[in-house]
Amino acid sequence: MSDAPVVTAVSRSATHDFSKRNEPSVRLLTGLGIEGDAHSGVTVKHRSRVARDPSQPNLRQVHLIHAELHDELAAAGYTVVAGDMGENITTRGVDLLGLPTGARLRLGATALVEITGLRNPCPQLNGFQAGLMQAVLDRDADGNVIRKGGIMGIVLADGDVHPGDPITVTLPPLPHTPLAPV
């Protein structure tokens, strides 16, 4: 079995549902996001952000979650699978939360996503499964909050992405900036 980073699932929803449906493939569109997804666009599409300022740039075009989080949640008694928490791309073998801002992920042959920041877990998680929001939050040794609900990015290059596609990570030049909520 290979430890090479891989896409394990791709998901989208044309409406602002909590969960997204798994697909055989999704198309990433430069500067927009996932074709046919409610969060695709040049400006913000998340409803709470649109309410504050609809002209903000969309730094949340693509939501990625590591499948290792699903494993961790399963061990804690939750039933969560790819797409359930609204992610578009589920990965395995990449420390998504450890990436710096500006890291780039080549997904499959041509799609390229630049990481913009962390997804801030929202209370809707508890509506999906009681206690889930707390389960995706943690604290480090210094008491700082660790947000485990995935990362967000923008699309730099078009491409079709399928489960099983390889992932190549390119880090930005030093010094690296840790991820913060976007």
Automatic annotation (TrEMBL):
InterPro entries: MoCF_Sase_C, MOSC_domain, Pyrv_Knase-like_insert_dom_sf. It comes from the Bacteria. Transmembrane segments: none annotated. Residues 21-170 form the MOSC domain. Gene3D superfamilies: PK beta-barrel domain-like. It holds the Pfam family MOSC. This is MOSC domain-containing protein. It comes from Luedemannella flava. The lineage of its organism: Bacteria, Bacillati, Actinomycetota, Actinomycetes, Micromonosporales.
